[in-house]
Amino acid sequence: MNDLSWLVYTLLAWLLVxxxxxxxxxxxDKHLAGTRRRRVPERTLFVLAVVGGALxxxxxxxxxxxxxxxxxxxxxxxxxxxAQWGLVIWQLLPADRIG
Length: 99
Hints:
By secondary structure, the protein is mainly α. 79% of the residues lie in helices and 0% in strands. The mean pLDDT is 91.
């Protein structure tokens, strides 16, 4: 395995871990919303999305029906996820397949 593939697989693992974390935080925040307890700040959700968890945020929005009415979430989370996972997929493609 060369240095670049090690980096790509590390990035892939990072995105998976961060996505699971944000997914769980979205579920926890949805639960807190129903109990009238202190919520997870939106800033925290965005930080987790930006550092790699955007796909988990998108899945959390859909599965938990959470933050789906807020444009800053239903626009930015999918765009971030597309950029993050697009980068990994692009790096995993064989070099001779890329234009």
